[in-house]
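Moderator note: this is an archived Q&A kept for reference. The question asked for a predicted structure of one protein chain; the sequence and the answer are reproduced below.
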Amino acid sequence: MPTFSYKVLRSPWMLGGLLLTGVAQAQSPGWEGTIGAGGLYSPDYLGSDDYEWKARPALDVSYGDTFFVSVTDGIGWNVVHQDKWRVAPFIGYTFGRDDDGDLDDLDKVDGGATAGLRVSYRDDAWRYKASVETPFTGDIDGYRFRFGATYVTRLGERAAFTLGPRVSYTSAAWTDDLFSVSQRESTRSGIDAYNPDNGYFSIGTDASLSYYITRQWSITGLVGVARLTGDAKDSPIVDDIGDATQWRAGAVINYHF
C-alpha cells in the first residue's frame, strides 16, 4: 500500500471545511493545489431556518509560497512568508441577501468584493488565522474581523481529520445592511421595523474528514455550526422568521496536483 503525506492548504473551510492535499515528496516552487466540486446543505440566507442544497466549486491553488487563489481566502499575495508566519493582503467576496422566500418583500442586498489583510501561523498540528476585510463594491459597508484555529490529525495512511473553532465580529454598518428592516419594508412585508445599533459576533466550530482514494483524488465530508449573537440575533429577520443557530454540511470531491 502506498504511503501518503499531507500538505495543509490555506483554506480552513473549503465549502465549509479544511481540505488537505497529498504529495509524494517535496516539490520546487510552482503551481500546485486542489480543484473540485461538491454540494453544501446550508441556510438559504444568513439567519434563515430554511435549508437548501447548493452546488459549490472547490479551488485552492498557489504558486510556491507567494501567490494564491482560493474560494474561501480569495486572491492574495504573501508579502511576508517567514518561518511559520504568513501575512497577505487579499481580494475576497462577501455574499449579500436575496429578496425571495421569507424575504421576498424586503429589498435585495447585493454582495460585493472585499479588500483585506490576513495573518496566519502554522504549528505542528494547529493552524491559526486572523483576517480583517471591508467591502468596496455592492451594498454592504463596514468591516468584518475573523479568527479561526484548526487542529489537524492523520488517521492511518489515507485519511485526515480536522476540528476547530471559528469567531467573527461584524461591524454595526455591515450588520445594519444585512439585518435592518426599514419602515417601508415593514409595511410591505408585515415584519417589524428594526434598526440595529451595534455589530455582532458569530461563534462556531467546523470539522472535516478527508479520505484519499489515490494521491490525486480525495473525498471530504464537512460539517459546521455557528451561533449569531447581538443585534443580528435580535433582528426580526432572525428572531421572528429565522434562527440564530446556523448549521451546514456537505461533501466535495477533489483533484490534487
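Archived answer notes: The radius of gyration is 19 Å.
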